[in-house]
Amino acid sequence: MEDATIATFLPPLDDNKMRDFWLGLIRQCRSSTPEAGERVIVYLAEDGAISGVASLLLPWSQTGNHRAWVEKLMVDGRLRQRGIARRLVDELERIAVEKGKWILLLDTETGSKAENVYPKLGYVEYGTVPDYSVSPEGLVLKCETFFYKDLRVVPLATK
Q1: pTM
Q2: Residues near 117 by Cβ (< 8 Å), separated by ≥ 6?
């Protein structure tokens, strides 16, 4: 969060608000109902500290029961470029397939470092929304880029 990532909160960061937010997500994981959908949180830890976290939202929908959203993929800035994001996303994709979800969607700030990561993980850009989020840097509106991945498609390298 120290790198001005748009991730729910604006500065000054409030530890209590962030803790309450994550505890709320954890409660959603524990109390999911078919009508509300389901949420899964995965994390990686190194030396007793969390190095990365990601969430998978599996909303209930009769017309879109094959879809899920990758959310809150965050890797400690000091530990990037070590495959942590790939390992987290691989695990979310495994869980998604296990739960019958094969279209995964996600979004990230246009121009962010994350925007370059998702295509490397097999995600396809499908659009940009202007003025989508407020940036922690300067409190200006930023565009958001949206991606999807069809888990039914086998990458060429594995054929």
Answers
A1: 0.80
A2: 85
Q: How far is it, in rounded angstroms, from Cα 29 to Cα 39?
A: 5
Residue 117, SS3 per DSSP: helix
For residue range 89-142, list pLDDT tens digits in order.
999 999 999 999 999 999 999 999 899 999 999 999 999 999 998 887 778 899
What structural domains and CATH numbers belong to the chain?
Answer: 15-151 (3.40.630.30)
Closest-CA residue to 93 (of 64, 115, 122): 122
Instruction: Say how many residues make up the chain.
Output: 159
Angstrom distance (rounded) from CA 39 to CA 49: 23
Hey, what are 109's tokens?
């700030």
